[in-house]
Amino acid sequence: MNLVLHVWRQAGPVAQGEFARYDARDVSEHMSFLELLDVINEDLIAKGEEPIAFEHDCREGICGSCGMMINGEAHGPVRGVTVCQLHLRSFRDGDELWVEPWRATAFPVLKDLVVDRGALDRMIQAGGFVSVRAGSAPDANAIPIPKDDADLAFDAATCIGCGACVAACPNASAMLFTAAKVAHLGLLPQGQPERDRRVLAMVGRMDAEGFGGCTNHAECEAACPKEISIDFIARMNRDCVRAALR
Amino acid sequence: MELQARVPAGPIEAKWDAHRHHLKLVNPANKRKYDVIVVGSGLAGASAAATLAELGYNVQCFCFQDSPRRAHSIAAQGGINAAKNYQNDGDSVWRLFYDTVKGGDFRSREANVHRLAQISVNIIDQCVAQGVPFAREYGGLLANRSFGGAQVSRTFYARGQTGQQLLLGAYQALARQIGAGKVKMFPRTEMLDVIVVDGKARGIVARDLVTGAVRSHVGHAVVLATGGYANVYFLSTNAKGCNVTATWRAHKRGAAFANPCFTQIHPTCIPPSGDYQSKLTLMSESLRNDGRIWVPQRPADKRPPIAIPDAERDYYLERLYPSFGNLTPRDIASRRAKEVCDEGRGVGPTGIGVYLDFRDAIQRLGRQTIADRYGNLFAMYRQITGEDPYDVPMRIYPAPHYTMGGLWVDYNLMSTVPGLYVIGEANFSDHGANRLGASALMQGLADGYFVLPYTIGDYLTQGGLPVVDDEHAAVKDVEREVHGRVERLLGVNGNRSVDAFHRELGRLMWERCGMSRTREGLHEALERIPALRERFWREVRVPGRGEDLNQSLEKAGRVADFMEFAELMCHDALHREESCGAHFREEYQTPEGEAKRDDERYAYVAAWEFTGVGEKPALHRERLSFENVPLSQRSYK
Known about the structure:
The structure holds two protein chains of two kinds.
Chain A: E1 3-9, E2 18-24, H1 33-46, E3 69-70, E4 73-74, E5 96-100, E6 109-111, E7 114-115, H2 118-127, H3 147-157, H4 164-168, H5 175-186, H6 195-208, H7 219-223, H8 231-245
Chain B: H1 15-22, H2 28-31, E1 35-39, H3 43-55, E2 58-62, E3 80-81, H4 93-103, H5 110-130, E4 155-156, H6 162-179, E5 183-186, E6 189-197, E7 200-208, E8 214-218, E9 221-224, H7 245-252, E10 257-258, E11 263-269, E12 292-296, E13 313-314, H8 316-320, H9 330-345, E14 354-357, H10 359-365, H11 367-385, E15 394-403, E16 406-407, E17 420-422, H12 440-461, H13 473-492, H14 498-513, H15 519-539, H16 551-575, H17 599-602, E18 604-609, E19 618-623
Parallel strand pairs in B: 1-2, 1-9, 2-5, 9-17
Antiparallel strand pairs in B: 3-4, 6-7, 7-8, 10-16, 10-18, 11-15, 12-13, 12-14, 14-15, 18-19
Helix pairs in contact in B: 3-6, 3-12, 4-5, 5-12, 10-11, 14-15, 14-16, 15-16
């Protein structure tokens, strides 16, 4: 199949960026989107040009490294996958695709499609953990956890930290990312002692990093490769109010 | 070079406790005076960095990814073993120890494996306390499943994302210490060399992958937790960034490399589909609990799988290994898959593949149960292949997955360079010639949470570590060498991409030093690798500049190291004239086609000393004795 790509090229954080056009001819529909970028890059290198910088690592949808906007959609048109799992069979022959980095104040562009998502790490550092020293844990079966609670906590814990929720949100809000961690730990007995501190610290950090607020567009849920529910945002709001009042 | 394993005396059950009692402690008030450098932030690195910081040490932690949460441990699917015996099915520390030594085909160090089995129970406690959402039963207690090479259910799991959840636990513990200022984190920073001063590891030289700045970082000890080298094959289940650079450069500075030819080929991966293929995707081994592996009895049977009746199917693992069936260890399952494909009985458009069929399990347990157990794996398979495994059997084929070899370490996890510790997949110690499923996560976390934090203190109390700063002559020398190497790569200005060279090397290694090896093939590889390496340095093209985010340059450095390392792998595979575990030499097999060990000549760890690029490395042997698990031929029949 043939595709036309317009890819955002930006030499560095302060450089002016622009779209560059690349024609992909006779590519296999079984290829992943990142393999398509590999092929384009091989051509560019052969021509003596700089290849497109993009992040990727595991290429099986779990590390959260990759991510880009394809025709305005985070991770492209297929629900519940990262761009490394997006295969060309999801497009039509002759499609024209506009490929951009995540756009958010809190995610400055470093080069081409690579952005700095350090803000997400700093939110976890602010409170997204259970304080337990190695060696101080009780027996793993000492505290039974109802299966439903454990399963719901798991649903929240599947977040891969890719940042698609932020990129998809018109406000560039990180509420889904934050809420997922708050819910994962807040649903488990192990997370209770720090539940209030955690939510306040993480939300405080989120605001300080320059993410926007949530106005219930639910674009984050639609873009999330792990299909994490915005119900967790409601839960975080409740936790936040409760913690602030205590 | 002298190999001192420092295995404590006494009965195996008592070794670790006795050893811990004798290890010297660093006074709590003095711990903050020590700087420890941890390279890598996977299960081993993150757990070590977090734990050392909890103890009070100053830690600097490095990873090449943009965040420590992305290390490749995250991709582990199936689970983590622990001898909890929560199922009351006869498991024990002893049995986990026994299974691991036997599964490793008697090429691991007994004392290390026993310690691993002992610690396994603490790991589960620690992870649950951190909030790792392991699978649970309706009563609220932890669930287990079984894995290859074991007849008990001792594997703890979190759907098909166990590695992710364990890593997030370790990452969050690390994040807490970063927030507390006890760990200084350097993401997007790649270690390019080790600094050795007066014979001791005192720091690293690393490149900031955003600005390109090459800088030194010094401390009192260095811990490498930099994973395995399966990407030497180009196509593997490893993340694209996984590489041998940190361990290889440490090797060139004096760290012995042990058993490099022990590379695990995982039996259940999605077969490659074309030349553009950039990596292979693993389907968790846990699928073998319920999936049945088969090929048609007749070669070149092109009927769709549903049209082939049971009588014309060959469930070859169940036939050959009635007691373990589809749960034989990985090396055996892989080799048998290759064998049936070589007979022309492979399936799918390429003939490279065997079926993993859930038809019977779905009939027996219902679709919902299967979806609960493997839902995300099935979805992943469908996304990649366009086929639905609920209706059509999966097609799987072996792919390089894990490397049991690694830098040689003593019982304290210290390499042959004093002060240089190696943990997790990067060392060689616990899995022998074949790793059992769900044991890698266990080892990474055991090393990081519960072994290294004790043993490193003993080293630091020994003193003899005068102040070394960035201006030290030895530091400047290494920095200069690293700069020179970067400039050399950029200066070749040839006409062929790094990936093209990597693919060529990978194909050569897969064919000659992959799932099965021969003397002729290895000799051929040893002739072709130096020639390929020479061409690389003459013809590679690395566009862009060094003072910039330059992904081609990152890859070029890694591939240049693979080009040197590949030769060591072949030397090791050639010298080991036996078959054991994942190392299968066609000349050495039983009449039934099983690996034929030669314990008299090869019951040792082959630890290689670097003697120069392209030179034959020097072999040192650490004899292995098996006092607790008697040497026997593995039988899974």
